[in-house]
Amino acid sequence: MQSIGLIGLGNAGQPLAERILASGFSLTVFDLDLAAVNAVVARGALAGGSAADAVRDLTITLLPSSVEVRKAVLGEPGAQGAAIDALQAGRTLIDLSGTDPECARELQARLQQKQATFVGGTIHASGAPAVVIPKGQFAIVIGGDRSKLEPAAKVLNQIAQTIICLPEPWMPKAFKIAIILYATTNNIISAEICSWLTAQGADPKLFLQLLQTTGSQASASRMEEFMKRDNNDGGALSNSYKDFRQALDIAAKLEIPMPLASMVNQIQEMGRATGLKRFNSPAAMGKLYELLTGTDLSAATLTAQKTIPESLEPRVVWLGVE
């Protein structure tokens, strides 16, 4: 039985721990939240006293941001118990946290010095993590050299139904941020369109039917997703804001303009300032535009919940990896 280490037992970490145990692996966990650790230990996991104690031949970090990952993996000056202390030659660290590409590059360089393997990655779940992850109905995107990815992909594919492999460890981080940029921008324009139609006395759902009837499926899909905003799926506005800040910080270092992303980020700031940071992004934008425009968008909602994807045969997909 292969042993896996897991550092981070938050909204995605706890269900991932449940899935790892259900897949037959031995699991050692660490988190600063002792209640979360105890809950997973009650399911059969072992508890590590520090991040280093949780390190195994294959270790996963699943933490909110680069700040927490650097503390857990690299530690602080003079502190003991960082994961890097136990990441010896031949061991693998897979970071599935909400980190940015720069953090992934730093971790890769530091682990190379110890002859350990670093794999950057992200989790993609269509639905609430607590529902879909324990069933294995989610995807993991990982990046790195094929020779290093193949062993990791083999293990991960026993946990998640789809593993997508990219050529560089930082790429999953960049692509996940890009997805958030795209989705959030769509949520904002959808809220704006629904407000504009409602103010004129038009039913936004009739507009959706028009999109579906005329064959504008891409636009219809985005509008339908916005109208299902009350299902509470998806990440909170606070998480989306973090991804935008990461994107804009990278753009500043690259000295490239991102005027649209900057504007979208300011609109998200307005949502945060009005107390909407715990709502998912489409729900937050819907409520914000009700405040901004004085319109009632309750008619621009659909009660249907997201459907959990059907279970598929496990697969590994290689994109751009030779």
What descriptive keywords fit this protein?
single chain; N-(1-d-carboxylethyl)-l-norvaline Dehydrogenase, domain 2; 9 strands; Rossmann fold; 2 domains; 13% strand
Q: Percent range for helical residues?
A: 40-55%
Helix and strand content put the structural class at alpha/beta
What would you report as the Rg, rounded to the nearest angstrom? 21 Å
Domain count: 2
Mean pLDDT: 92
Q: How far apart are the first and last residues' alpha carbons, in Å?
A: 30 Å
Name of the CATH class of the largest domain? Alpha Beta
SSE pattern:
EHEHEHEHEHEHEHEHHHHHHE
Fraction in beta strands: 5-15%
CATH homologous superfamily name of the largest domain?
A: NAD(P)-binding Rossmann-like Domain
**Strands, count:** 9
CATH architecture of the largest domain: 3-Layer(aba) Sandwich
What does this structure look like?
There is one protein chain. By secondary structure, the protein is an alpha/beta fold. The protein has two domains: 3-169, Rossmann fold (3-Layer(aba) Sandwich); 174-293, N-(1-d-carboxylethyl)-l-norvaline Dehydrogenase, domain 2. It is built from 13 helices and nine strands. The chain has helices at 13-22, 34-41, 51-54, 66-74, 101-113, 129-132, 146-156, 171-199, 204-214, 217-227, 237-254, 259-273, 281-293, and strands spanning 3-7, 26-30, 46-47, 58-61, 92-95, 117-124, 139-143, 162-166, 315-318. It has a nine-stranded mixed beta sheet, with helices on both faces. Strand 7 (139-143), helix 7 and strand 8 (162-166) form a beta-alpha-beta unit. The longest helix has 29 residues, at 171-199. The two termini are 30 Å apart. 43% of the residues are buried. The model has no long low-confidence stretch (mean pLDDT 92).
